[in-house]
Write a structure and sequence with these properties.
Number of domains of chain B: 2
Oligomer: heterodimer
Radius of gyration of chain B: 24 Å
Structural class of chain A: mainly alpha
Largest interface: A-B, 40 and 42 residues
Distance between the termini of chain A: 55 Å
Helix content of chain B: 55-70%
Number of helices of chain B: 14
Strand order of the largest sheet of chain B: 2-3-4
Largest sheet of chain A: 2 strands, antiparallel
Order of helices and strands of chain A: EEEHHHHHHHHHE
Shape of chain A: globular
């Protein structure tokens, strides 16, 4: 029998015996924020609306639900040129197991989400009381932003949704964050979660489309690194 | 169209025929057989080879940080993440969690920022902080307590003082580094925080002083101390992955208490029922 060590600060300090579940009930027929997933939400809501309710605390109305769904679809494609998918593909190429590729993709998507949200702090502040035009740094005259905004408005209109704050002349990211805000996501941490959630499936699809250990096809020197010696 | 190809500068490494360069040094001719693991981490993050004295200090830091009880919050996180049998994923989970968190070795970076700012504030123009009146230091410390409640790297949970700080102080003294400026400032500030706020230093504050006295920047000190403390990460991740404990995969029901909203029906379910 191993000898028992004397008590330390953890044994000698009282601590709770239970962890608090605040959103999901443990056990069968789980409820999320009080709503049964299997007997209620699965019958009356789509999956994005379940996620939306979990994040915001309230079941979305039709307009918010459709807006969230459309925003997630616009956010979903993350091309291999972007770091999350590039990293996930590289994990695949070095032979990582699928769960590790999911972990890599999730970390990189989360880092990207944090970066994007941090760059849009002024926009999120403006959205709390949008009594004027959005901050100038989020406006754009670029054709690709204009086209994206047109497509977003068209998709929203087809679902009967109009978001006044979208206006005109917005950058792509700003337009999508405004849509998430309309859908009820008010805090940066909620938006970061939505960005990761939206991107994971397609990022994984790109990674899994590559053959494991197929390193010969990978452009190892792109972009080029230049080694510099000395301080 | 001929676009210029982007390039990235690196001082970290270069693969060569028969050898590798690491941070300006040949692995075969200069590093292998000469450097300790701690010194290599310091070289990788700080960009310079440390002296023999500094190497001993860094090795002592790694030893002092070997507090790894799996019930401590960050190690518990590793045990939970490793409960399905994965070792590396658990280390990754904790490493990601520590960045910018107010708990854990990475806090040493923020504590270093605070110590450096304090030094600049109490001794503008290069005056030694030990030549200024104690009341000046106290005024700055009071402001930090008001601003932060718990200044970065300070406050000791569960016990009256952090035994690792006391052990590190012994090692700092044994290596003749107790009179270096940031260690002295750390000791002075620790006395003041205890006197005016009943707040004791936790290990990150002491690590910050050690790192600053070696010339590392606050941005370097966070990852450096995280890496030097990694023995406890790996020990817990390995044992946890080998155990793959069912009671961590799913906690016993008796240990979970639901406190969320009571059962209710969604608006659409209510509408469907009343149709």
């Amino acid at each position: 029998m191993p000898q028992r060590r004397p008590n330390g600060p953890i044994e000698d300090r009282p601590s709770p015996n239970e962890i608090e579940a605040r959103v999901v009930t443990p056990g069968p027929d789980p409820r999320v924020r009080g709503f049964s997933v299997e007997a209620d939400f699965a019958l009356h809501y789509r999956f994005p609306e379940l996620a939306q309710m979990a994040l915001t605390g309230a079941p979305p109305d039709e307009a918010k639900g459709r807006a969230f769904d459309i925003a997630l679809q616009f956010l979903a494609p993350v091309a291999i040129a972007e770091a999350p998918t590039h990293a996930a593909v590289l994990a695949r190429l070095i032979g990582a197991r699928p769960s590790s590729i999911v972990a890599v993709a999730s970390i990189a998507l989360a880092e990207r989400a944090r970066h994007v949200i941090a760059q849009h702090g002024e926009l999120l502040t403006w959205l709390e009381a949008p009594d004027d035009d959005p901050p100038a740094r989020y406006r754009s005259d670029a054709a690709e932003d204009r086209d994206c905004l047109d497509r977003l408005k068209r998709a929203l209109a087809s679902a009967g949704v109009e978001i006044p704050a979208l206006g005109t002349g917005l950058q792509r990211w700003a337009a999508l964050l405004i849509t998430l805000h309309f859908a009820g996501l008010r805090r940066a941490e909620q938006m970061e979660t939505a960005l990761v959630m939206s991107g994971l499936a397609i990022t994984m699809a790109e990674a899994l489309s590559h053959a494991p250990s197929d390193l010969a096809q990978y452009p190892i020197d792109v972009p080029a690194f230049v080694y510099e010696e000395g301080p | 169209m001929n676009r210029e190809r982007p390039t990235l500068a690196t001082r970290v490494g270069h693969a060569e025929w028969g050898d590798n360069q690491f941070c300006g040094h040949s692995v075969a001719r200069e590093l292998a057989g000469s450097e300790s693991a701690s010194a290599l981490i310091a070289l990788g993050i700080g960009g310079r080879r440390v002296t023999d004295d500094e190497r001993r200090m860094l090795d002592d830091v790694a030893s002092v940080l070997s507090a790894a009880d799996p019930r401590i919050w960050q190690f518990k996180l590793i045990r939970i993440a490793s409960a399905y049998g994965g070792c590396n994923a658990a280390v990754a989970a904790l490493t990601v969690s520590l960045e910018d968190a107010p708990i854990g070795h990475h806090t040493a970076g923020r504590a270093a920022e605070m110590l450096r700012r304090l030094r600049d504030e109490v001794s503008p123009g290069g005056v030694s902080p030990f030549d200024v009146d104690d009341s000046v230091v106290e005024r700055q410390c009071r402001a930090l307590l008001v601003d932060n409640g718990r200044p970065p790297g300070f406050w000791v949970p569960f016990r009256p003082r952090d035994e690792r700080v006391d052990l590190l102080a012994q090692r700092v003294a044994a290596l003749g580094r107790g009179e270096l400026p940031y260690w002295r400032l750390f000791e002075k500030v620790s006395d003041v925080f205890w006197r005016i706020g009943n707040v004791r230093p936790n290990i990150p504050a002491a690590l910050a002083a050690v790192g600053l006295d070696m010339g590392f920047s606050p941005a370097q000190i966070g990852p450096l101390m995280t890496a030097l403390g990694a023995a406890g990460f790996w020990a817990n991740a390995f044992e946890g992955s080998q155990q793959a404990a069912a009671c961590l995969q799913v906690l016993p029901r008796d240990n979970v208490r639901y406190v969320g909203p009571a059962p209710r029906m969604s608006p659409r379910a209510v509408r469907a029922m009343t149709k």
